UniProtKB/TrEMBL annotation:
Record-annotated Thioredoxin domain positions: 51-199
Record family assignment: Belongs to the thioredoxin family. DsbE subfamily.
Statement: the UniProt record of this protein carries the keyword Transmembrane: yes
Name of the featured protein: DsbE family thiol:disulfide interchange protein
Transmembrane regions: 16-37
Species of origin: Roseibium porphyridii
Subcellular localization, as worded in the UniProt entry: Cell envelope
Cited NCBIfam families: dsbE
Broad class of where this protein is predominantly found: other
Length: 201
């Protein structure tokens, strides 16, 4: 035996990482993979259930986006009470959201539908950025509420922006579309739902 072996002492057997340490990581990875599959590869995000469908819109009051104007007039904020008496389309958006920019031309088209009011929830945004966003792309909204803290979006059960809701004249949430509207989903899914609700269905 060499002197170096004597000084180092007997070699200790190598120990693997205990399985209990890895278990939470494995469970988390499995759940994350399942969620990703549901949202992107094999699942339809529109089939994610919403506990708010056919229930009253949550109670809220949102102040207007500071300085936001449309046709020379200040755009007001809104509250849950403003969603009664007419069919409303509630769109959650933000200037920093790429998919919001993608769906925006369809919201401009949607704003031309008779019998509805278009309202926006501006999610975790700065007023100047929201004004610039709507100033460059056009403002389809009749009212826009500033949700700087994100509290209102949480109450609405928002997964992420954009999301679009249809609220009937009684203030009941009747439909929820998750993600950006595209030409096909707009014409084949969203508009038929809207027309059904406008007809009292």
């Amino acid at each position: 035996m060499s002197a170096s072996d004597t000084e180092a002492g007997p070699k200790q057997p190598k120990r693997g990482v205990p399985i209990l340490v890895l278990l939470p990581l494995v469970v988390f990875a499995a759940l994350a993979g399942l969620f990703l599959f549901q949202l992107t590869l094999g699942g339809d995000p529109q089939k994610i259930p919403s506990a708010l469908i056919n229930k009253p819109a949550p109670e809220f009051v949102l102040a207007p986006v500071e300085g936001l104007e449309k046709d020379g007039k200040a755009v007001t904020g809104f509250s849950s009470e403003d969603l009664k008496g007419k069919v409303s389309v509630v769109n959650v958006f933000a200037s920093w959201c790429g998919p919001c920019r993608q769906e925006h031309p369809l919201l401009e088209e949607l704003a031309k539908v008779d019998g509805i009011e278009m309202v926006g929830i501006n999610y975790k945004d700065k007023p100047e950025n929201a004004r610039r966003f709507l100033g460059s792309l056009g403002n389809p909204y009749d009212r826009v509420g500033a949700d700087a803290s994100g509290r209102a979006a949480i109450d609405w059960g928002v997964y992420g922006v954009p999301e679009t809701f249809i609220v009937d004249e009684n203030g009941m949430i009747r439909y929820k579309f998750i993600g950006p509207l595209g030409p096909q989903s707009y014409s084949e899914t969203f508009l038929p739902e809207l027309e059904k609700i406008l007809a009292g269905g």
